[in-house]
Amino acid sequence: MFKFKNTKRGFTILEVLITMLVITIGGLATYAMVQQIIFSTFSSSYRLTAAYLAKEGIETVRNTRDTNWIEAENWDNGLTSTDWEVCVLPKYERKITITSDGPDKLEVVIEVKWEERGNTHTITVQENLYNWY
Asked: Own/partner pairs for 85-94, CB < 8 Å, 24+ apart?
């Protein structure tokens, strides 16, 4: 009649364990990669915000100079350095340093610092303003 061949069609315990190990390693690697992407996204966001705050500091100084011209005052009237001040966003602090580099030139240095994960980060922007009016 019919003869049944004794064939093994299932998985051994060793094959199941190896498969579980490979899936676990792949899952952990994916988790680590997603975590790194999230950290990089937040870090880039903080750095971009600090760059915008530094740019805003330069624009504030430039606006003061231009207002002085419009009001027929001395071009560098009211342009003084500031100590660290809390920005609109409380996580950031900005310092404006203005030094004279001749009668018609000012060097403006803006520093923005913030805390992220227990570390202090700083962005520095420098601009030269001239009395070209």
From this structure: 87/53, 87/112, 88/53, 89/49, 89/53, 91/46, 91/115, 92/49, 92/50, 92/53, 94/53, 94/54, 94/57
